[in-house]
Here is the input.
Amino acid sequence: MTGTNLRSIKRIGLLTSGGDAPGMNAAIRSVVLAAHHYHIDVIGFYHGYNGLVCQEYIEQAKPLTLLDVNNVIHLGGTLLKSARCQLMLEEKGLQLAANTLDDNNIDALIVIGGDGSFKGLLALQQYWSGQVIGVPGTIDNDVDGTDYTIGFATAVNTGIEAIDKIRDTADAFERIFIVELMGRHSGHITFNVGIACAAEQVLSFENFAGGEQSLQLEQLTSEIIKAKEVRHSSYIIVIAENLWQGGAAELARQLRERSGMECTPCILGHIQRGGSPVAKDRILATKMGVAAVQGHIDGKTNVMVAERDNAMHFITLEEAIKHHKLVSQQLVDAQQNILALTAQRQC
Ligand code: F6P
Here is the structure.
């Protein structure tokens, strides 16, 4: 993963790809500042990998100055824009991307994104001889090898703030709410938000085995009825997107039908992707941006920057995309234990 012949890095290409995440701007800023310190130019490519393969976006590529990243650390979204790019799954797209990088005299590329973006980066290696480094930026926190991804902490916070508000109205009406959270196919956001909001139920891939939806519905209904008998108050279920066929709205309808109780669905959706990054994401992004530039100077390639136990590491891109990072079993167990306790005592 480290080149044997260190090549001098004069121009770094930079892009953000996939779902935007709060803290991406902080990472862009960090890359530009660190590169500037080492007298390396940074060329920003816009709209994700489309900036390397679509003519109208290729033309937008430009050097990023210190002024460009002034006063952006607190901004959500990404100043480089983002996209998911189907062409990067094809030979034609990969070749086009390689040509664009060569045409712009890029020595090394940094891509801030999630595992899908890293698959593109890995594939690009077969067509382009420059160095590549990934920086994990996704609210889903599902990238293996790093304790946290940029954007996750903010998304969890946004979920918590929203559900705390939902709790107020749910309490007033002693009503059941079903709140759907993002995360694609992993439950990092759902579990963390659920625990932090003292949700009565957390339904996610990690604790809710697939199978007969009708059986699961029956069990859920009887748990809610039991809980409502001992404690008259609000009841909040957080559910991971893509878990229940038809999502939160359909689950609410089915529960209403079965239990006769009022159930209100609420899909938090893209609100979780936006907003000003919390301190943790700004700091993580800053550390990762610097590490990525340093990694390129040290001749590293084909790697992702990762933070483990508060220290920066590099892991291979293959390792990073091999598995989705699982929600820690400790967290799943803690939620199950708390659920069992609250069901017994009236708290
Ligand atoms: O990967 C980030 C994410 O927000 C997921 O949580 C979600 O499933 C997906 O992106 C939504 O993608 P889009 O914005 O393209 O609908």
About this structure: The radius of gyration is 22 Å. The mean pLDDT is 94. Residues 43 and 104 are 8 Å apart (CA to CA). The first strand starts at residue 11 and ends at 16.
